[in-house]
Amino acid sequence: MKELIDALVRELRIDENQARGGAGLLFRAACDKLGAGEFAKLLGGLPGLDDLMRQAPESGAGRLFGGLASALGAGNAAILAEVLAGFGKLGLSQDQAKRFVPVILSFLRERLGPEVVATLESALRR
Fold this sequence. Notes:
This protein is an all-alpha fold and about 130 residues long. The chain has one domain (about 1-125). Helix content is about 80%, strand content about 0%. It contains 8 helices and no strands. α2 (about 15-35) crosses α3 (about 35-45) and α5 (about 60-70) runs antiparallel to α6 (about 75-90).
């Protein structure tokens, strides 16, 4: 994961804590959306991923909202709300949050291949 964090720091001009926290938030959101089993099948081979996800800030209210919204069928909105709240805790804007995605997808393509990334993107759009 060091290569990903270094790329985020360099390309987004943020500090290492923001890079770790933001990447962790996005990976945790993907895990929440896909479910632990499918997430592990797609990304489980990345060393350090679990540790990175544990470093993501908790948004508190977003977690509560997430459980409620998922039960009501509004999981995407809840996950997005939690991610944005977490990025806010890192001192990052919504625009900065969006810039994480292409860097992370490029990293995943290099490490896991384009097929895995295509499957991941398709699953996250559901």
